[in-house]
Design goal:
single chain, four-stranded mixed beta sheet, 402 residues, alpha/beta
Amino acid sequence: MRSRPSIVLLGSTGSVGQSTLDVLACHGSHRVFALTANRNVSLMLEQCEQWRPTCAVMVDEEAARQLREAMPSVSPETRVLSGAAALVEVVTEAAVDTVLAAIVGAAGLPSALAAAKSGKKLLLANKEALIMAGPLFMAAVRDHGAVLLPIDSEHNAVFQCLPESNRLPGRMAASTDVRRIILTASGGPFLDRPAEMLGEVTAAEACRHPNWSMGQKISVDSATMMNKGLELIEACYLFGLPPEQVDVLIHPQSIVHSLVEYCDGSMLAQLGSPDMRVPIAHALAWPERRPSGADFLDLVSSADLQFRHPDTEQFPCLRLGREAVRAGPVSVIRLNAANEVAVAAFLGGAIGFMDIPVIIARTLEAAENGSADPVEGLDDVLSIDRRARELANELLIGIVRS
């Protein structure tokens, strides 16, 4: 009898991590080797009590100390590790078959890249691994025989709609038969709010997504539609397409998750409930299928499916994302860094909602002279990212003072 594969969940206490554990509980397909988090000790303890992993990693040192003290009475066989280096340690373990990369932001890049270089089956929910290091990341997947499966509902939908011959993970280049791919966007909580009224919205409003339950950062990205700008960039890297062949349509119902249009006029779409457990279950079981625990879609009782073009005046972050991928990898790294700085400042109450695209645009403009910087390895990526964050923070101070 074949033993169950082992999985590491990078970001197990986040929304994607919790959904993944829900799916695993449905069919018990994997043994949990490691759970990792930043500082949510109480939830990590609950997860360790249920799953009894070999390792638990807390990036925050104080959180790791607290977890280490409490673990013997909860899961005595679980070893507690700490720090960012421990994330790389657990994903490169020989006993690990599968890695879910769901750490939000640039902090998730080193461990996701390490998993790719270790030839793991990699379920990618961390956008920044591709945004910051797309060419390097895809080369690592190909060179080391990793299996890359996208967890974002949009990219997972595209993957499912591609021709069978083009679905080898890590080598998902769309064939010449594909005319374009269309990513759908809910439009977030401010879809029908006039642009002139967006300056006064609060962080609580921006985090109140109408269809999806997500963390704060990605919820704000959805509200600004930067998430769709980032997903457009991801799609270009994942599927080997220029930005001209990647479109975005607003679809408020979040039922059609993406579409692939072929040269003969045919269009294939993937539909499903707006529940992250659906793409997670698909990727975990691929190339088979297993239950996800999500509700099945009832087309008769579902709302009418509506589509419209996005307004880039109302949502300039989508335009900035498209412009960045056209400019090249350096601009994409800077875009992501500036967005992370701006979103954190907005969530902290330092700036307004409409200051987010302003900081991003000004960072890209101010850094334009260095656009030819080489990106030959992870150190280059992190260096460009660091300088862009410094610049964005300088610009942020100017906006706060004004």
